[in-house]
Amino acid sequence: MSWLEALILGILQGLTEFLPVSSSGHLELGGALFGLEDPHEYFTFNIIVHGATFLSVVVVFWRDIVSLVLNFFRFRWNAEMRFVLLLLASAVPTAIVGLLFEEQIESIFEGRVVFVGAMLLITATLLFITRFVPKNNKEVTLKSALVIGLAQTLAILPGISRSGATISTALFFGIERGQAIRFSFLMVLIPVFGANFLKLIRMPEQAAAGHMDMAPMLIGALAAFIAGVIACRWMLDIVRRGNIEYFSIYCVLAGITAIIAGSIF
Fold this sequence. Notes:
The chain is mostly helical and 265 residues long. It has helices spanning 3-18, 23-34, 39-60, 62-72, 79-100, 102-108, 113-129, 142-154, 162-172, 177-187, 189-208, 214-241, 247-264.
């Protein structure tokens, strides 16, 4: 992977992580377009740029994160403690799948363009349905947190948008839009932190063995971080205005294009 490819893919990841169009799907399409053939290197790149967007969430939501952490370690039952416990509960499905099926998950990232296209059409359907969901002001419950966590787990599949799946699921439960996006963006911190921690433990050995060039990885991470901050702030405004369903048009076009291109080439 060259530094220019890493730069473009990093920007792509940062922008699409928070917009409901599937960052993993776009990374797969980008990898196929650039002809990147090493699935292990590209999977590692995926993990690193997702870690960079993890940092962009920290930057945008730092006040919320500080408040949640401080309240959690006070060990007093209040709204913030409840919210933290619900975030932890939402991470359980993803943690189980990630730990038990790591090799199978890595095998998904092998340039399956037609599969990505099909999953983008599913994302488009989820986004479009939100147009008919009535506005409510419910709070996140243990049940809804676990189901939203399952939606996040499905977003392991490239083409299923993580933010699109989790925010749509929250809206289906009647959760207030501001709380839905806050929960969706904060819940990603736990599984992404865990995945990157495991990857960082193994990275020195892999780099020493000549399995990867770290320079493009770092360039991609920086690009993803900057683009992620921009996209995160933009997405906050989009969801609050209730315009999430319009991204379904883009997902349909991208999905059909991917299916046709994958079938021909």
